[in-house]
Amino acid sequence: MALLISRRIFRPHFIFRKMTSSSESILLLVPHVKLKKNEGELYLMSERLGWMVGNKDSFNVSHKYSDIKTQKISPEGKPKVQLQVCLHDGSATTFQFVNPSGQAEQMADRDKVKDLLQLMLPKFKRMVNKDLEEKKLFLSENPQYRQLYMDLVKSNVISAEEFWSDYATQFIKQQQDTKNATQQDVGISASFLADIKPQTDGCNGGVRYLLTSDVMASIFRTYPSVKQKHLKCVPNKMTEEEFWKKFFSSHYLHRDKNINDTKDLFTDCGKQDEQVLRQDLTTAINDPLLDLTALNDVEDETSGTPSNAKINNIAHQNMIRRFNQHSILVLKASEQAAGAEPAVVEAAPPKRMRLQEALTYDDLDSSESNPNVQLNLCRIERYLNGPPTTVPSQAGVNRNGSSTGLAVDSNTFKSILGRWMRGGGDRYNPLDVLSSATAVTVLGELSIGGSLMRGPQPNSAIHLTSELQKELKELYVSLSEILKHFWAAFPPSTPELVQKTNRMIDALHKFNQAKLTPYEQKLIQASTSSEAENIIRPLRFQLQAAIRKHSQLSERRPLPRTVVSSM
Amino acid sequence: MLELKRALDAKGHCLLEMPSGTGKTTTLLSLIVAYMKAHPLDLTKLVYCSRTVPEIEKVMEELRKLMNYYEKEMGMEQNILGLALSSRKNLCIHPSVSKEREGKVVDGRCYSLTASFVRARHAADDAVPICEFYEGFDAHGKEFPLPPGVYNLDDLKEYGQMKRWCPYFLARHTITHANIVVYSYHYLLDPKIAEVVSKEISKTSVVVFDEAHNIDNVCIDSMSVKITKRLLDKCSNSITILETTISNMKENDSKRLEKEYKRLVEGLRDATIARETDMALVNPVLPSEILEEAVPGTIRTAEHFVAFLKRVVEYIKTRLRVQHVVQESPAGFLRDIHTKVCIDRKPLRFSAERLASLIRTLEISDLTDFSPLVTVSHFATLVSTYTKGFTIIIEPFEDRAPTVSNPILYFSCLDSSIAIKPVFNRFQTVVITSGTLSPLDMYPKILDFHPVIMTSFTMTLARPCILPMIVSKGNDQVAMSSRYETREDTAVIRNYGNLLVEVAAAVPDGIVCFFTSYLYLETIVSSWYDQGIIDQLQRHKLLFIETQDAAETSLALINYIKACDNGRGAVLLSVARGKVSEGIDFDHHLGRAVLMFGIPYVYTQSRILRARLEYLRDQFQIRENDFLTFDAMRHAAQCLGRCMRGKTDYGIMILADKRFSRADKRSKLPKWIQEHLKDTNCNLSTEECVQICKRWLRQMAQPFSREDQLGISLLTLEQLQSEEMQKKIQQRAQGV
Q1: Beta carbons of B61 and A309 less than 8 Å apart
Q2: Distance CA B146, CA B165 (A)
Q3: How many domains are there within chain A?
Q4: Distance of alpha carbon A53 from alpha carbon A41, whole angstroms
Q5: What tens digit of pLDDT does each residue of A181-237 get?
Q6: How far is A542 from chain B (nearest CA, A)?
Q7: Which residue of A62, A445, A526, B14 is most buried, as measured by CB atoms within 10 A?
Q8: Which residue of chain B comes nearest to A301, CA vs CA?
């Protein structure tokens, strides 16, 4: 570690307990700094910044420079002199400088800190990729994913990339959302022209306009014709300043001005705007319910020539038209910013749809359009118990929808049916339905002491300590997560999918070794081995089903396997 | 429904006020259709008149829903034919004619392709263009009636395309046997059109006028004529065209003119047995006994008639050359025209018919040029037919611009009952309904009829959906009012502006403002601009303003809705009595607040209005002030009602004028608004108003689900059938 020595204060003897590495140098120490009403000292060190209450020897607060995103200072003139450091995780700490010798000193203290931080922060800005931060934030906000991450990634069952790309679905969704959200641009304020307030400077009666780059951008976005003019004129015909001067005297700012003043630079701009408006008049009126011109069925003769239009004040009318135009253009500009495809006139909704829309009352529609499809079960017990299986070992596979398993199932089913048919013809022979051996076993199971009559089995998990229980739950969650992805890859028709199954099966093996076996050991220590086996069995069963399936697959089609490990 | 059923049973007329969004249309349709099914002999037809084309189409969609429901419940096809009728403009499917946007041009071009003589010419010479769709309809359409179903305008067009029949003529033909006809008021009220379209509708029909709060004005407009200088100049042109055509024809084909002459001698009735397509020119209501008579000899020959028309036009021209305003009765006009140019009343009466006949004979296919002349002939006929209830006003210039000479002759109908009288007399039940008909007792008076049922309904609401308030003063305690004396006062204008700005800051999404007149809107906007209020407003929302150009306003409207949809929020400044206030709904977020700046009194200095008020006073004993207030309040209510549509909707209604809090104004608001207008909210300042708005909006923004409404304002079938609820409904019905 490079040793930076502050020129001002040097306290090499100071060794911090909480430090992970060895001692660091102090670059700056500022006393009289308040944090949450406690006065203390602020230390700026080579790698981090810390604050401690005066009489202690350990930091109450310490931030690594690399954690700090920005610093903010209170504006001048505020009674409190403050400095805030914002961290990457979104939290912030505010220090208040309370040097008793006055505000000037406080400011000096603050500026010292600020300057040093300004120096230090860029050094530590190891391009913390934002991504990582987001992931961190996500994990801290979602404990279940955090657990999953711990179980799967930390124990090397799967790689971190895999985790982020495949497992943390919620995270992926969230990211997409934010991506979409960031696309939304800020619209244009309707009053941007009003914000250009003329200010008279007292001495020579001139008028000053304040023009910010924001306002300029708004003008360009709202009035494309002005932008064109600007492009055309500014470098060669006139200076920037002249251009804006002209703009300020144009009709854009003085809405009551007559547009037909030929001397004005912006006359043709106004005409262009007018043209755009005219075009809109013919194209944009596409809603039949809003077209005032087509409202009346039988038009009255008077509408053609508005006789009283002549006597009205033309300046007023122009102004009103300009207000409308301004609003329309502002709206257009923000629309263009928002939508990816600019200015595509969206197709008018069909007239009938508009009419229907205008007629339906939400509150009157019955809520029968329930989005959930109701599951209609004719035989509930079948749903709960699953189909009767003849070969119990295949059950796991069958349920996962393998085609061979289904074929076997249907074959046995057929054979049973066939037996019935053969035995009966039209005469029903109950003896043929069940073989006598099965009947006996079933009877045995159903009589007292049989496995089906034992009632609710005392759940072995109850005996587990809560810690073990929790661990078991986590195991279940992690395993089912991996299995989910494993089965999702079936049938592995493409090479990618094949690879994925391979990866998953490796992960399963790893999981078995790294997680399941140690847990079993623990269980055996805690209780008897048979009980441990009982508890673990479902997990093992799921695992084995997957592995068996995979090996079946690779037998049929020898696949290059990178890791072959035994159970 | 109870009231409607009673009216149907009694075969009388009724007047119903139902708040918008409570299912007015559905109620009317379903009950009347059910009644028709139950008593097919008593009630054969439903004629549903609405105001605008979208409204008509909405009614059709409602009807379609109803029919679908019938089909679902009864499990079989319903033998009911529902039909919408609109002008050629909306129904034409001719490839080139339908491209025209203006209704008159479409009518004219249609006529030039379908008139009987054009088709006769086509038979002789293939080069003469005709409309293939009309030919298709003429050849086959009449034998095969439209199969039962619901036909909206688009459905008619589709059907027409499929069969290659003209949808317009198909629809007109079908009206006679359709069970339900939906069309615009004009087809029933405007005598010029009604004669053609609605003549054959049977007596046992029920007629519904929806959105009928303006029905008296429609009646009056349909009977009034306005003649300007320009129109007369055009008339002269058309007359010269007529003259040349006649002289040409005389040389080439004098027989035809002779034939016409003979026909006219026999009587007009025979002359008008023409094809229905020739009805593009139609006469105003003529008592049928006149039609039985022969055309007076003075105008029988073509040349004489043209000369006659020329004299009439010249006479009107001289009358327009006045320096001061003239007002006279039709009788006075007739006397004057007799003494000055020796024209009798009788030939004047026939002028419309005679002109139509002449144009037919001359085979003039382009009718659009002749519309001024037709207008004058209508005027001549009307003025000589009706002596009561009309007035003639000649103004040499407009009041606002006394220096510009712009003479106009108004032939104005003063009595709205003239146009609607035939409707009331002919049909057994006429239902007049709207969301805003209050005060109800005015309508029977001005329309001169006797309703058997007259009711105003309210809404049952689960929460206070509307917040009407009367803001009478600004924060500086200066009274707000659009009174003539104070409307130009900057303090008042500024207070109005501040009110709007503060409301815009507090209310989300869309805000609609209504001004009393377009002129007032313009002056206010320009003073607001000078006062910087527009800038303040733009900080909160986008600003859109109604203009006098309908297309521009539509564009502004579409953008207003866009701005509301994407969450920016917008303010729309608009005019009471304007197109926006009459035809556009601002439901849900499109209108969270409606502001009414001032009381929308009609321009009281207008001479036409003065004449009408006088007439109302003399004939119907309605005081001027009563009528003016009634008229203003129904328009105000109409504006306020724009923001409510359905029970889940909610909106603020701000009446910004001190005068609204007076009892005579307040009591004229519809019952459903009055119910929510608390006494404490009747005299507020801007600040108080904004505070109330904020509190109320917070309350309204709470989630509102269907369950909250159930049992109060929304009933399930079981609840409806339960005895307890039945009792409640009974009680409420009696309370009404």
Answers
A1: no
A2: 11
A3: 4
A4: 6
A5: 555 566 777 777 776 766 665 566 566 777 777 788 888 888 888 888 888 887 777
A6: 46
A7: B14
A8: B226
pTM of the model: 0.71
**Residue A298 is nearest to which of B54, B186, B550, comparing CB atoms?**
B186
Smallest Cα distance from A369 to chain B, Å: 14
Domain of residue A507, residue span: 466-555
Beta-carbon separation of B550 and A303 below 8 A: yes
Q: Which of B544, B562, B706 sits opposite A324 (nearest CB)?
A: B544
List helix spans (H) across A192-288. Answer: 192-195, 213-222, 224-233, 240-248, 267-283
Query: Is the Cβ pair B561, A187 closer than 8 Å?
Result: no
Torsion sign over Cα A497, A502, A507, A508: positive
B residues 108-137 lying closer than 8 A (beta carbon) to A: none
Q: Taking residues B156-171, what's their average pLDDT?
A: 89
Which of A186-190, A273-277, A499-503 has the lowest average pLDDT?
Answer: A186-190
Mark whether A519 and A537 lie in a shared domain.
yes
Going along chain B from its start, the domains and CATH numbers come out as 21-86+150-211 (3.40.50.300), 223-416 (no CATH), 466-704 (3.40.50.300), 705-735 (no CATH)
The C-alpha of A398 sits at a distance from chain B's nearest C-alpha, in angstroms, of 45
**Cα–Cα distance measured from residue B144 to residue B319, given in angstroms and rounded to the nearest whole number:** 54
Q: Are B292 and B350 in contact (CB under 8 A)?
A: no
Complex-level ipTM: 0.82
My answer on whether A100 and A148 are in the same domain is: no
Return d(Cα A235, Cα A118) in angstroms, integer.
Answer: 38
B466-473/B684-685 β-pairing = parallel
Nearest to A284 by CA among B106, B541, B560, B567: B560
Residue B562 and residue A331: Cβ atoms within 8 Å? yes
How far off is chain B from A466, nearest CA to CA, in Å? Answer: 43
Q: Would the pLDDT of A4 be above 50?
A: no
Under 8 Å between Cβ of B194 and B418: no
Contact yes or no for A266/A238 (Cβ under 8 A): no
Q: What angle do CA A557, A559, A561 make, to 5 degrees?
A: 150
CB contact under 8 Å between A290 and B584, yes or no, is yes
- Tokens 């007049």 appear where? B432
Angle at A320 between CA B557 and CA A257, to 5 degrees: 150
CB contact (8 A) between residue A331 and residue B554: no
- Is B221's CB within 8 Å of A300's CB? yes
Let me know: does B548 contact A306? Beta carbons within 8 Å: yes
